[in-house]
């Protein structure tokens, strides 16, 4: 993992705050969407052992979602405003950590191994969906059109930096200068169009850890919640 974009005056989007701090944090639940429905998602802390014997602790807290129909006012349109915070802490004080975070939104897909379809004839079970297998990728704040069985990957991290030639470049990975870090975001927006059936969303984070003898990416997922 490289940290050059933070050391070269990387700028995150205004809604995202990335600060190095000490760790502790939580995760997710579930809610049924209707006009202006607020969903409070539970906390989770995960500790993962790395190949060199060190470990990384990833905590998610303050996660919430507010869901309502879009200004289009039809069942085919809906919006979600999401907020949350991640705290990272590596046991090796010389380690470097980073994070890429976002949400997966599925139209008539059940997200997660513990989910089941709701009986809708066209519902599909896609239990292993990931950011890489999503149908479309977009920044939060953008609108996407999804049909049955399709999914969108909305990423909340967007860092600008100068590449080796001085040109403007972007990455979805935020790197921290040491073994601890925090990422917070507030009211990031996801706009879904065209989904006539039920829709679900779930948060995810890809955490990069680099030590003197190991480099690893750890994936963590939140619990799915309904967006209508």
Automatic annotation (TrEMBL):
Residues of the signal peptide: 1-35
Pfam families: MspA
Annotated SUPFAM superfamilies: Leukocidin-like
InterPro entries with a match to the protein in the record: Leukocidin/porin_MspA_sf, Porin_fam_mycobact-type, TAT_signal
Domain of life assignment: Bacteria
Keywords from the named record: Signal
Organism phylogeny: Bacteria, Bacillati, Actinomycetota, Actinomycetes, Mycobacteriales
TM region positions: none
Signal keyword on record: yes
Species the sequence originates in: Gordonia soli NBRC 108243
Protein name: MspA family protein
């Amino acid at each position: 993992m490289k940290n050059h974009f933070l050391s070269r005056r990387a700028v995150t989007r205004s809604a995202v705050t990335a600060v190095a701090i000490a760790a502790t944090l939580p995760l997710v639940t579930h809610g049924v969407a209707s006009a202006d429905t607020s969903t409070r998602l539970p906390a989770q802390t995960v500790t993962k052992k790395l190949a060199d014997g060190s470990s990384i602790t990833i905590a998610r807290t303050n996660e919430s979602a507010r869901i309502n129909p879009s200004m289009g006012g039809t069942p085919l349109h809906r919006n979600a405003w999401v907020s949350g915070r991640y705290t990272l802490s590596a046991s090796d004080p010389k380690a470097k950590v980073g994070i890429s975070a976002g949400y997966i939104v599925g139209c008539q897909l059940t997200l997660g191994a513990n989910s089941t379809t709701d009986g809708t004839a066209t519902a599909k079970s896609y239990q292993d969906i990931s950011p890489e297998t999503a149908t479309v990728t977009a920044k939060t704040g953008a609108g996407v059109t999804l049909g049955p069985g399709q999914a969108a990957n909305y990423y909340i991290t967007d860092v600008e930096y100068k590449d080796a030639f001085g040109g403007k470049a972007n990455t979805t990975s935020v790197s921290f200068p040491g073994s601890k870090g925090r990422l917070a975001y507030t009211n990031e927006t996801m706009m879904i169009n065209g989904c006539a059936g039920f829709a679900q969303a779930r948060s995810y984070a890809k955490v990069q850890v680099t030590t003197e003898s190991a480099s690893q990416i750890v994936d963590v997922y939140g619990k799915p919640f309904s967006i209508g």
